[in-house]
Amino acid sequence: MIFDAVVVGPLSVNCFILGCEETREGVVVDPGGDVERIIQTVRRHGLTVRYIINTHGHFDHVGGNREAVATFKAPLLIHREDAHLLGLVAEVGRMYGIQGENSPEADGFLTDGMEIEFGTHRMKVLHTPGHTQGGCCLYLAEENKIITGDTLFADSIGRSDLPGGSHDQLLASIQAKLFTLPDDVAAYPGHGPETSIGHEKRHNPYF
């Protein structure tokens, strides 16, 4: 499987580009900005984007949605609980001194346990509220990988002091949905370096 990442936007979001080497179908996860670089990566792999997916609705993860949707002509997916945030990108960005563009509305909604297929691959949606109410992780069981968005970071967790956040809910989501996965699953957060489920179970200071 093609599994690539581009660090984008003013807050250094990890945008993931996944693809099937046989069919060249792919998905783009969290196009937060610098969409031209995302486009270049997609084209370098020769992919046709089947879905654009947001792990959650914060402006730094969805800021490039409009350009990505216009370019790839692919449906946009996010959890229903975060769909309202897509129309707040410009407003929230201004609060951080960052110019942003509101996202188009979602074409479909992520649900817990939903499986998303691209080519010969599939990934399972794990709803992990706490950072936001609609936060989700994307589990690629056959590849032993999980994209954790802003739910779980290397030796840290997502912040929960923003509207819709809950520290207790976030901890419960991680323990129930992520720490029940095999220890050797590689975890790819929305910011910063990769880690593993086993490392976080043993060393994450929040647990």
Automatic annotation (TrEMBL):
The keyword Iron does not apply. SUPFAM superfamilies: Metallo-hydrolase/oxidoreductase (SSF56281). It holds the Pfam family Lactamase_B. This is MBL fold metallo-hydrolase. It comes from Oryzomonas rubra. One of its GO terms (molecular function) is hydrolase activity. Residues 12-191 form the Metallo-beta-lactamase domain. Its cofactor is Zn(2+). Gene3D superfamilies: Ribonuclease Z/Hydroxyacylglutathione hydrolase-like. Keywords: Hydrolase, Metal-binding, Zinc. InterPro entries: MBL_Glyoxalase_II (IPR051453), Metallo-B-lactamas (IPR001279), RibonucZ/Hydroxyglut_hydro (IPR036866).
